[in-house]
Design brief:
Blueprint: E1 9-14, H1 17-29, E2 36-41, E3 63-67, H2 77-83, E4 86-89, H3 92-96, H4 100-110, E5 112-115, H5 129-135, E6 141-145, H6 156-163
Length: 170
């Protein structure tokens, strides 16, 4: 069943690591009435895990990492609500676990999902978060990719754990 021509849903996930990537993957791979685009917002400059990208021709990327952003310091949750259709904050207990079952099921169930309801607005183009942060002089790391969903759920806890053992050379 093809996605509808409705206005895309723009969702901010305030997290990184296994829980944030699990939430982003679930949001991107679940069928919705409208296309879903996710911004994964983190205070770190890069996630501890690996974000996979599966380019599909001219299709727009559906996942964007926005790193080096401290929510409540660089940008407030209220400001995020002005830019996104929903803001997702995983439960602190889910963030502390490495159990895959908790990450996949309970993390989504316990996440605080705050939907914002707006009339049609100019932000139907990609959210203006990067422009807002640039105007404030915040140095932001941004990456986008993952244009198509994956066929099976990823064990993000294992990916994050194994990525910590990979040396990084500059």
């Amino acid at each position: 069943m093809p996605e509808s021509s409705q206005r895309p849903l723009r969702i901010a996930v305030i997290s990184d690591g296994a829980t944030g990537m699990c939430l982003a993957e679930s949001l991107l791979t679940t069928r919705h009435q409208a296309p879903v685009f996710v911004d994964l917002i983190t205070a770190r400059t890069a996630p501890a895990g690996l974000l996979r990208s599966t380019p599909q021709g001219d299709q727009a990327p559906r996942l964007r990492l926005i790193g080096n952003v401290r929510v409540d310091e660089d940008v407030t949750v209220d400001e995020l609500h002005e830019l996104y259709d929903a803001v997702v904050t995983p439960d602190a207990a889910a963030l502390a676990t490495t159990d895959t079952a908790t990450l996949t099921g309970a993390a989504l169930a316990s996440a605080e999902i705050t939907a914002a309801v707006f009339p049609e607005r100019p932000q139907d183009a990609p959210p203006r978060l990067l422009e807002l942060l640039d105007a404030r002089g915040v140095a932001v790391i941004s990456w986008q990719g993952w244009t198509a969903g994956v066929t099976a759920s990823t064990d993000w806890a294992a990916v994050e754990l194994s990525s910590r053992g990979v040396p990084v050379c500059m």
